[in-house]
Structure formats: structure tokens, C-alpha cells
Amino acid sequence: MDEKYARYLLGMSKGGYDLIAERFSDTRCFFWKDLGGLLEYVNSGDRVLDLGCGNGRLFGAIKEKGGDYHGIDNSEKLIELAKKNNPQAEFQTADALNIPFGDNYFDKVFAIAVLHHIPSLKLRLDFLKEIKRVLKQNGVLILTVWKLSPKKQVWRVLLENAFLKIIGKSKLDFKDIFYPWKDFQGKVLTQRYVHLFSSKELNDLAKRAGFTIKDFGETERGKDKDTNLFLIASK
């Protein structure tokens, strides 16, 4: 994927989340149980970045662990909701590819369900390298992505997109899809770009960015029992 189109998709994703911010926030009111095990990496006094924080739903859990929480997201609307929901926390609108903090600043960085929304191999690698930059030496990245789904409708879309790419009719990369966000009546409000990872691909990407893998596995996400890949890696 060329970088110009990748940047266009990033802008489209940002606009989409601004559009659906309130409804999206309503579905992310509670801390999902599958994330609970990832909190064991937070120690009291840790400076923690929640990258792609959305409505700030991780704040309470990280605060309970004694972490010094900082949340950033590129959606102004979601940051407005995060500040409203958690007025005592620090939130700001920012680009995950240009994190507004200095080198070696954070002990831990959470990137929950963010990386799969970053288009192109180059920008995904830039994303991980930027996280590595702001982590302290031996700091830890806690990351999740959606796993490549076995659902028939997903595979059908993947195969259609792959065929279009092979014949030069698609700018997307292999394993890229657009995932619709629908209202209660089933009307599509926006299309979200998603890259569907395999386990090997995610591990290899983290290693290319210079991380050391500490743990890796799968967790169920949300009420639909879909699967996330999680990765714990150190600088």
C-alpha cells in the first residue's frame, strides 16, 4: 500500500470514530474481563500511556493499580467523552505516530485494539517504533489486536479483496478489510479499516521494531466471544 493512501485511510478512520463516538463509548462503558490479566504488568508508581484510549475506560483499572495514567487518542470526540467521564485524568488529542512525549518517558504502554487500524506495513512498523521510543529501557508494551476470524463472511471479503488486489483493482493490502459500524436499525454509519493479523505476523512485526517478546496468546473479547491476540514485549 502506498503511503498516501495509507494516510487517507488514517484520516477516514479518525473521521469515522468522531462520527460514532457517543455510540462507540456506550459499548465501551465497562472494563472487559479479558483485559484483566494484562493489568498484572502495571506496578504502583508506573507511568502508563493508554495509546488509543477512546473514552478512557482503562483509567479506573490502572489507577487502582497505582499507575500514573496518561491517555491519548486521535478522535477529538472520544477525548471529549474521556475527559467528561474521568475529569481527574490526563487526556489529550494526539497522533499515535507522533506521540507528544519525550524519549524513555513511560514504564508501560497499553495499545488495546489499535494496531489493526493502522494501514500499511510501514506505518504499523512506525507505530511500534514510536512506542519503543517513549518507553523506558526495559519498559513494557501491552498490546492487543483482532485475530484473523474463521467466520465465513470475513473470509469471503478477504478473498474478494485479494482477487481485486491481484488484478490491480484494489489499493488495500492482503488481509485488509473494511469493517462496518451499524446503528440499531442496521444502517452503516462508517467503515473502519482493519488489518487482520496472524500470530506469526504480529510476533515478527514486534521483533522487527526491536522489541523482545515476553508473552503471547489469545483472549476472548466482548460478548460475541471473538478472539484477540495479545502480546507483551519489552524494550
Topology, element by element:
Elements: H1 3-26, E1 47-51, H2 59-64, E2 68-73, H3 76-85, E3 90-93, E4 106-112, H4 121-134, E5 135-146, H5 152-166, E6 176-182, E7 188-195, H6 199-208, E8 212-221, E9 226-234
Which overall shape is indicated by the principal axes computed on the Cα atoms?
globular
What is the N-to-C order of secondary-structure elements (H for helix, E for strand)? HEHEHEEHEHEEHEE
Mean pLDDT: 87
Per DSSP E runs of 2 or more residues, the count of β-strands stands at 9
CATH domain class? Alpha Beta
Helix fraction by DSSP (H/I, runs of at least 4)? 25-40%
Question: Main traits of this protein?
Answer:
6 helices, Methyltransf_11, Rossmann fold, 9 strands, two-stranded antiparallel ribbon, 235 residues, 29% strand, alpha/beta, 7-stranded mixed β-sheet
What does this structure look like?
This protein is an alpha/beta fold. The chain has one domain (3-147, 199-234): Vaccinia Virus protein VP39 (Rossmann fold), CATH 3.40.50.150. The chain has helices spanning 3-26, 59-64, 76-85, 121-134, 152-166, 199-208; strands at 47-51, 68-73, 90-93, 106-112, 135-146, 176-182, 188-195, 212-221, 226-234. The strands form two sheets. Strands 3-2-1-4-5-9-8 form a seven-stranded mixed sheet, with helices on both faces. Strands 6-7 form a two-stranded antiparallel ribbon. Helix 2 (59-64) links the parallel strand 1 (47-51) and strand 2 (68-73). Helix 1 runs parallel beside helix 3. The longest helix has 24 residues, at 3-26. The model has no long low-confidence stretch (mean pLDDT 87).
